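Subgroup meeting minutes
Present: P.N., E.W., G.H.
Scribe: E.W.

1. P.N. recapped why we're keeping a running log of single-chain structure predictions: easier to compare across weeks, and new members can see raw inputs and outputs side by side.
2. G.H. added today's entry (257 aa).
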Amino acid sequence: MRARAAVCWVAVLIAGCGLAEAPQRPGDGPGGRDQALALTPQQELAVGRRTAQEVRAEYRDLILPDDAPDVQRVRRVAEKLVRAAGIEPLQREINLKVRGYRFEWEADVIRERQANAFCLPAGKIFVFTGILRVAADDGELASVLAHEMAHALAHHGSERVARLQGGGNILSSLQYDRQQESEADHIGVFLLPFAGYDPDEAAEFWQRMMSRGGAGLPEFLSSHPSPETRVRDIRRWAPQARAAKQAFDEGRVASPR
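Output recorded in log:
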């Protein structure tokens, strides 16, 4: 994302909401961790809508038309992931708290060489054409979209606002960001088989991204897990995700408590 769009998002998050703490019980975050949220479901939706308008204005001359092949491809893959995200047993499996939230899933494609994609609160997805040239097939594209959608499903934007309000030093903020990125990887890997994609393709994609991007910063100085850590974790989670999908297909799922 260009710096202007990124700054716009953060500014809207801080200035555009009343900052009434969203109700969240201890242990209600992804994976059962504690998660402080700053935005109510209504505020999160409003932030997503407003920020999407800002991004579209920023890239208005670069957004591809609805009938462009790249747009059709992205939306086809995204629709499968959206259906997977709506499966209640899967939500329980990865402890997603989405009841009471409204997601308006939309995907736009921006003609930009940068290999990037992002998803705003409440489901506004933006994909740069540069990432489409890296993703070898729809499975690898699904890996990217699932990761970005996971940030919205886990309310990471709202959590970042709460974090900004609470202060904290640089190193603790980096650790906090890495935790969210790792969670998005974990949630994304579980979405993939439920959407009909092989979760191992996520590791293959990030392995190739690692070879393109070089070693980068040491992990303790980076806002993302190191590529080696990311690939290792995804390979560890992939069999668990496939097992969850098989249990779902065979009707071996726990009833809601």
